[in-house]
Amino acid sequence: MASNSGRRLNIDNINPHVRAAKYAVRGELAVKSEEYRAALQNGATDLPFKQVISANIGNPQQLDQKPITFIRQVLSILENPALLEKGDVLVNHLGYKPDVLERAKKLLAAVGSVGAYSPSNGAPAIRQSIAEFLERRDGFPANPADIYMSAGASSGVNTLLHIICADEKSGVLVPIPQYPLYTASLSVLNATCVPYYLDEQKNWGTDLATIRAAHEKAKAEGVDVRAIVIINPGNPTGASLPEEDIRAVIEFARQERLVILADEVYQTNVFIGEFISFKRMLRQMQKEQPGTYDNIELASLHSVSKGMIGECGHRGGYFELVGFDPLVQAEIYKFVSIMLCAPVIGQCLVELMVNPPKPGEPSYDLYIQEYNAIFNGLHERATALHKAFEQMEGVECGVPQGSMYLFPTIKLPPKAAKAAAAEGRTPDEFYCLRMLEATGVCVVPGSGFGQKEGTLHFRTTFLAPGTEWVGSIVKFHKEFMDKYR
């Protein structure tokens, strides 16, 4: 289509699949919240709030989560190895511990320089360290050759979906509600998202009958369903899957020959029960029934962006492959090679995440103190937010289980739905926009993640410090309900 501006590209002739993709966590409300933030920084006094709370995205250090000292000290040396020439100054005057210097030397020996490319799948010594972590975590060995470093988990998801999706008929089962990375990526690939609903009445657990029905419906429509995505602990729901749910998904994947994509980036953010990895459960099932599950293909992902580390901006992550055809794995290596390699400083950060200071080492006491303080702070704020929701009319929310999010149900008056329609918005979008305008708190409408027809939700993080902003939500909600009841 010709452009009147004389430019070659216009909104009508660019890739339509990119245009069609939606990514709500950085959508309209996020843009508006940044406009408010800029206005406040420029001295605006006409807004009904004094700060913007970005509860729309899991970005811990933007919300004042402090970096782990051990990690940042090691990184500082990796970025400037000349500091090692002044090791006595670092230790005696700047608070560095001797094991910080030793770890930096070890990583520098492994990568040479963080300014140099690594092998496409990541530095061998770092992948070895991850394999050792996985063996400690799961009780089963891991092969460094099956581990691929990535620029955060998002890059790993992009790689895997590119390999899995051959054409528009390639389908991937995606949980609803879900982190919109998956639907957006499938849209860009012009592949088919096959949604399956999580069960809110079972703490957002998986329901095998629902998954099976979604799978059968897609197959009947000619979709070649190839994979199933599981986010555990959940985003946006915060759910932590029990063993029986994980076993059921693995058995279903065996029956239907589905690749399992296990997004496990919140594995340390578990408040109730324990995190059980899909790798551990698969290996256990293979041990229990030799030969039955040998052809399961599992890709599990992890990242430095979440957990207690919260180093989103460093873009470090990895994925591990289990049971993939060697020829397919060679194509995955080729795909990651196109981007040369994941950021090497991010790779080093992954190594520090999976191999932290151990008891008895000089940095351990401060490390565990900082780690536990972050974990306890997250749990306390999640609990405070949950208690606030309990006192809000028409709001229902399960007890916080994990990750960094709550996903409450909201029941709004018909007048609010009518006012939303008049603005061309869904009721949850309307509600969240009014909340932002009244309080400066930016959350994400449930429609951005998917929700059952007839239900409304919003997702909020519980990363922001303090509780004043929680009180402002309670006050806003009462006034909103009174206005539209």
Quick recap of the structure?
With 485 residues, the chain is an alpha/beta fold.
Structural key phrases:
globular, Aspartate Aminotransferase, domain 1, 485 residues, alpha/beta, Helix Hairpins, three-stranded antiparallel β-sheet, Aspartate Aminotransferase, domain 2
Secondary structure tally, helices: 17
CATH level-4 homologous superfamily of the largest domain:
Type I PLP-dependent aspartate aminotransferase-like (Major domain)
Shape: globular
Strand sequence of the main sheet, in spatial order? 2-8-7-6-5-3-4
Report the average pLDDT across residues: 88
Distance between the termini: 48 Å
> What fraction of residues sit in β-strands?
5-15%
What CATH architecture label of the largest domain applies? Answer: 3-Layer(aba) Sandwich
- The residue fraction in helices comes out at 40-55%
What does the model show?
The protein has 485 residues and is α/β, with parallel strands linked by helices. It has 3 domains: 16-64 and 370-484, Aspartate Aminotransferase, domain 1, CATH 3.90.1150.10; 69-115, Helix Hairpins; 117-354, Aspartate Aminotransferase, domain 2. It is 44% helix and 12% strand. The chain contains 17 helices and 14 strands. The chain has helices at residues 16-20, 28-41, 69-79, 87-93, 98-111, 124-138, 152-164, 181-188, 208-220, 243-256, 278-288, 326-338, 344-354, 364-390, 414-422, 427-439, 468-484; strands spanning 53-54, 147-150, 170-176, 192-197, 224-231, 259-263, 298-303, 317-322, 395-396, 405-406, 409-410, 441-442, 444-445, 458-461. The strands form 4 sheets. A 7-stranded mixed beta sheet has the order 2-8-7-6-5-3-4, sandwiched between helices. Strands 10-14-13 form a 3-stranded antiparallel beta sheet, with helices on one face. Helix 3 packs across helix 5 (98-111). The chain is globular, with a radius of gyration of 23 Å. The chain starts with 15 loop residues before the first helix and ends with a helix. The model has no long low-confidence stretch (mean pLDDT 88).
